[in-house]
Amino acid sequence: MHTALCTLYERAKDGMTIQELETVAQLTELAGDEARRLSALCEGVACLVLSGEEAPCSAGSFQTPGGLFDLLCSLAHSLDAIGGLVEIGQEADRRVRMQLAGDEVRS
Length: 107
Hints:
Strand content: under 5%
Number of helices: 4
Shape: elongated
Structural class: mainly alpha
Radius of gyration: 20 Å
Number of strands: 0
Helix content: over 70%
Mean pLDDT: 87
């Protein structure tokens, strides 16, 4: 996901207006929000696993190696996407600042 996002941004960045770059720069903040949501989700899953372990009969999707594998792969994919959003957002922000600085020098 990270590579795909970065490739798309690399192809588009030179044709983007400052307003479009500013919109893309917001991805950094959105990535932070997503990371916090993912953190809360992981905490909730951990509580479910713990409570299932303490029950007389285990239940839930994360009690087997297959369930844990799926969960961890999903988390890895989400974190990879978040990393791509951060990288693109930071690069877009840098380009906006450079363009605005160039406009100030010309004024």
